[in-house]
TrEMBL record:
It holds the Pfam family DUF423. The chain crosses the membrane at residues 6-26, 47-65, 71-90, 102-126. One of its GO terms (cellular component) is plasma membrane. This is UPF0382 membrane protein.
Amino acid sequence: METILMAQVMGALYGLLAVIFGAFGAHALKKKFTPELLRSFETGVKYQMYHSILLIVLSFNLGFGSNLDTYIVYCFVIGILLFSFSIYGLCLTTANGKKLRFLGPVTPLGGLLLVIGWALLLYSFIAPIL
């Protein structure tokens, strides 16, 4: 899939899912989750939405003439998946008493990819003036 189209489709899909998960968390999970689990779940939703919007903005603003632009998009697409969805999995399985511990290390890996995506984006802005 062309990188621009992937950024648009994934940004829209992740945005759609963030709204659905946010509503699900606020209504259906409110009674099942402890306040701490609810805050964690909401963190996943917020980060997912922020980065979904960013993907859509990038798809209309990056030139996609270099590999750097593609790496930026991939960092955000994979970072959202690993970061937010591992938080959802941890919260849901913890609330059901069967915490999937293997998801614990996945969250920081996703966060690292988000950080790398932001760092690459910053580099793409300052590289032409260096």
